[in-house]
């Protein structure tokens, strides 16, 4: 049996979420006596080989230039062809913006079903079971897919990729059979804010809320973020007020994040905000109200004024990092 | 133009959610339901397309009798009519998409709008499921949409760190993300008119779920952490704890 993992790259660099998915898939594969085959669209052979370090025995490498930009129908068709060739019934992929777009179409194309955005995956009685939070994190469901063909998308930053072993994957080139009709829908370009880490991909996030009192105080958040090498996030209150762009919003109607460290400054911790960040590994809250709900989920809290605590913390970290 | 907007009937986000007796779904008693917030953007996009090109906006919702009130909310915004696929049985997303696809068969849809996510099951999958089942293109998480006279679509969708421009052609399924538009508020007149707008009941074909919910549980409650201290004096201890105990720096 083969589990296929769709690896994702941008600008030739494999995304960390792809390593996480391969690692998680190999844990499942071990229990099912299966092997993991990775699929990589674009990048280069070295990248294809590197996937072996996380548990892929083989990488099917698709160099087709037409797939340089994302085209959902063409990608779906290519993956379906690779599944057939590899006799794979199970596909795992990171629940990134690409993965979330691709996974449902793929599930239908292969006459299977999808368990989206899962946060844990295991084998029980020979079947793959997965868990994910629903109702804004107010409950968790455990599901299994009863059709033979199964697609799982894995929430980024939740599964650990660990360190790469020295093993290289065997690379096999594959040219999918595609025609023009498969490219009716295609991405023609991307606009990426340069030099900025997206909250959805960041290991460390510093977020600010209404407690900051105005956009003019954001250099405080930015300063702490820069010191930590963090992305900046925001509560919806400040996004709605126009202080910060929507791309930074963390929460149920913003982005779901699971960084190693999440620092909430002047954020009350409304249920919709928690829905987006409560799976962070370590949460720090700075709030002047000792009863703010954010302290209920925080690992460490400081009760105090952001205008005093944040600059002091930035200075302390600077000396800690020897900057 | 035949414009369809799929709407989902979801618990208000501030509602307390309790696991019901089956241990597999929520207990609906005492839960207030609303029109899924993302579907307001979807309805608005449908109405704007109608205003630009003419035609009809039809809402589609799969669910029990109670979802009619959610369909009425969309009708109050200005949609023309509704299709209610009436079912009580637990249904997975695939089955919901299948029921919508069956309902749209023979209706020559030009455009189908859905929300980015339904805030109950947060699947983010209906757009792709429907696109594939209907055999038409789909673009998800759209923040900007331009549909030319000849049906060429140019859209922007959110991706990590920025946006992606995607082109395709009608008929297509589009999932609406916040930022796409400013949904209009229903006016009193619209609310009155909605009561008289037709909602067609449709029975879904039998369906066996592909995704089985084994159990639903409350998430493990994280123990509240500790207050390290008050004011700037506490930062030294915090940095030490982050390094030595949490090992995150
Ligand atoms: C359908 C729906 C979806 C939503 N989705 C989201 C979402 O995705 N993300 C999200 O964040 N919210 C979301 N919300 C909004 C959410 O309910 C809250 O309104 C919002 O999170 C509050 O933002 P805040 O914590 O910045 O502001 P507030 O709740 O106003 O909190 C400000 C906090 O700052 C503290 N403070 C004030 N001054 C200082 C100071 N000088 N020093 C230290 N602390 C100070 C206060 O004690 C307070 O705790 C949603 C709401 C709804 C209805
Ligand atoms: C009668 C019924 C019973 C259900 N019972 C269960 C259950 O027991 N257990 C369980 O886990 N889930 C159940 N569900 C939920 C179902 O499995 C899907 O999860 C849900 O319908 C779609 O959620 P999603 O998160 O996949 O949607 P998303 O992909 O997040 O939704 C995106 C968009 O799809 C559209 N959409 C979503 N749902 C509907 C709908 N019902 N009608 C019309 N348009 C819609 C909306 O435009 C929405 O914004 C039930 C659903 C129905 C209709």
Q: In words, what does this structure look like?
A:
- The complex is a heterodimer of chains A (323) and B (249).
- Chain A has 323 residues and is α/β, with parallel strands linked by helices.
- Helices cover 29% and strands 29% of the residues of chain A.
- Chain A has two domains: 2-183, Rossmann fold, CATH 3.40.50.620; 204-321, Rossmann fold (3-Layer(aba) Sandwich), CATH 3.40.50.1220.
- In chain A, helix 5 (218-228) links the parallel strand 14 and strand 15.
- The termini of chain A are far apart.
- Chain B has one domain: Rossmann fold (3-Layer(aba) Sandwich), CATH 3.40.50.
- Chain B is built from six helices and 13 strands.
- In chain B, a hairpin with a 2-residue loop joins strand 8 (152-159) and strand 9 (162-169).
- In chain B, helix 2 (68-77) crosses helix 5.
- The radius of gyration of chain B is 22 Å and the shape is globular.
- The interface between A and B is large, with 91 and 81 residues.
- Strand 13 of chain A pairs antiparallel with strand 9 (162-169) of chain B.
- The structure holds flavin-adenine dinucleotide (2 copies).
- One flavin-adenine dinucleotide binds next to helix 6, helix 7 and helix 9 of chain A.
- The overall pLDDT average of chain A reads 95
| Structural class by SSE content of chain B | alpha/beta
Quaternary state of the chains? heterodimer
Identify the CATH architecture of chain B.
3-Layer(aba) Sandwich
CATH architecture tag of the largest domain in chain A: 3-Layer(aba) Sandwich
Broad CATH class of chain B: Alpha Beta
CATH topology of chain B: Rossmann fold
Largest chain interface and its two residue counts?
Answer: A-B, 91 and 81 residues
| Separation of the first and last Cα atoms of chain B | 57 Å
The count of strands of chain A amounts to 18
Percent of residues of chain B in helical segments?
A: 25-40%
């Amino acid at each position: 049996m083969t589990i296929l993992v769709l690896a994702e790259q941008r600008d030739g660099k494999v995304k960390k979420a792809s390593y996480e998915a391969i690692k998680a898939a190999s844990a499942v594969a071990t229990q099912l006596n299966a092997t993991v085959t990775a699929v990589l669209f674009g990048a280069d052979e070295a990248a294809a080989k590197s996937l072996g370090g996380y548990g892929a025995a083989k990488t099917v490498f698709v160099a087709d230039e037409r797939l340089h930009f994302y085209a959902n129908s063409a990608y779906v068709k290519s993956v379906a062809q690779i599944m057939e060739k590899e006799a794979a019934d199970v596909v795992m992929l990171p629940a990134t913006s690409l993965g979330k777009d691709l996974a449902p179409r793929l599930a239908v194309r292969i006459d299977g079903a999808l368990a989206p955005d899962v946060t844990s995956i295991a084998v029980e009685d020979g079947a793959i079971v997965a868990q994910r939070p629903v109702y804004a994190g107010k409950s968790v469901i455990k599901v299994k897919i009863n059709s033979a063909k199964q697609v799982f998308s894995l929430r980024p930053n939740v599964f650990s990729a660990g360190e790469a072993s020295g093993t290289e994957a065997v690379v096999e080139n594959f040219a999918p059979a595609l025609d023009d009709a498969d490219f009716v829908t295609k991405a023609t370009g991307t606009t990426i804010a340069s030099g900025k880490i997206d909250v959805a991909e960041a290991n460390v996030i510093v977020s600010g809320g209404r407690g900051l009192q105005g956009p003019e105080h954001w250099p405080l958040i930015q300063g702490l973020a820069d010191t930590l090498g963090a992305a900046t996030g925001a509560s919806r209150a400040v996004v709605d007020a126009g202080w910060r762009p929507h791309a930074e919003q963390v929460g149920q109607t913003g982005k779901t994040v699971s960084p190693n460290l999440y620092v909430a400054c002047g954020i009350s911790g409304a249920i919709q905000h928690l829905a987006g960040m409560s799976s962070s590994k370590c949460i720090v809250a700075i709030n002047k109200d000792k009863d703010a709900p954010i302290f209920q989920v925080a690992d460490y809290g400081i009760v105090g004024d952001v205008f005093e605590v944040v600059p002091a913390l930035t200075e302390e970290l600077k000396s800690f990092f020897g900057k | 133009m035949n414009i369809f907007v799929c709407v989902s009937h979801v618990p208000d986000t501030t509602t307390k959610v309790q696991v019901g007796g089956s241990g597999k779904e929520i207990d609906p008693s005492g839960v207030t339901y609303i029109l899924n917030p993302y579907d307001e953007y979807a309805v608005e996009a449908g109405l704007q397309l109608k205003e630009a090109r003419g035609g009809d906006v039809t809402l589609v919702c799969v669910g029990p009798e109670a979802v009619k009130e959610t369909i009425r909310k969309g009708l109050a915004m200005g949609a023309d009519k509704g299709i209610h696929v009436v079912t009580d049985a637990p249904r997975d997303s695939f089955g919901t998409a299948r029921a919508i696809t069956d309902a749209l068969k023979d209706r020559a849809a030009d455009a189908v709008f859905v929300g980015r996510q339904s805030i109950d099951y947060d699947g983010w999958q209906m757009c792709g499921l429907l696109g594939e089942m209907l055999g038409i293109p789909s673009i998800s998480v759209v923040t900007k949409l331009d549909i030319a006279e000849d049906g060429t679509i140019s859209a922007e969708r959110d991706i990590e760190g920025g946006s992606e421009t995607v082109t395709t052609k009608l008929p297509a399924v589009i999932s609406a993300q916040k930022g796409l538009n400013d949904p209009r508020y229903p006016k009193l007149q619209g609310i009155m008119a909605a009561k008289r707008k037709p909602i067609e009941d449709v029975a879904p074909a039998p369906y066996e779920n592909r995704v089985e919910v084994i159990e639903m549980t409350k998430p493990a409650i994280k123990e509240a952490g500790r207050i390290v201290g008050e004011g700037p004096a506490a930062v030294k201890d915090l940095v030490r704890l982050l390094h030595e105990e949490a090992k995150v720096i």
